[in-house]
Design brief:
about 140 residues
Length: about 140
């Protein structure tokens, strides 16, 4: 007897729109949905934890992973690389787990092309002014 394949939920938005906050608030109520941790070359922000918020890697490591096609999606945003390691996502889906991604709109387009069965959720910021204030506050 094989288990059913899990579902992939892609939550995307421009940087600063609030997708990470929404996901963190929703995950406890979503039961067994697994959160996919992305890799990035950007410096760690205060309070962020390795393997929880991101996998913090060097530029050379990220570029080598890209060359080996190890990302489900990746993009360069504001001078830093961000990407979703493919192997853990695929393994979780094959095991029947539902997985949620927190990625930007560029990455969501790549995932949609590779996995059209994914459920795509776009988060819009409340207003341009709020988005600007959030980004300037980082």
């Amino acid at each position: 007897m094989t288990s059913a394949r899990g579902s992939l939920f892609v939550v995307s938005a421009p940087s600063g729109a609030g997708k990470t906050t929404l996901i963190r608030q929703a995950l406890p109520d979503l039961g067994a949905v697994q959160f996919s941790v992305s890799a990035t070359t950007r410096p760690r922000r205060p309070g962020e934890q390795e393997g929880v918020d991101y996998f913090f890697v060097g530029r050379e490591t990220f570029e080598a992973m890209t060359a080996r096609d190890e990302f489900l999606e990746w993009a360069q945003v504001h001078g830093n690389y961000y990407g979703t390691p493919a192997a853990p996502v695929r393994a979780a889906l094959e095991a029947g787990a539902d997985v949620m991604l927190d990625i930007d709109v560029q990455g969501a387009a790549q995932v949609r092309a590779r996995m059209p069965e994914s459920v795509q959720i776009l988060v819009a910021p409340p207003s341009f002014e709020v988005l600007r204030a959030r980004l300037e506050g980082r």
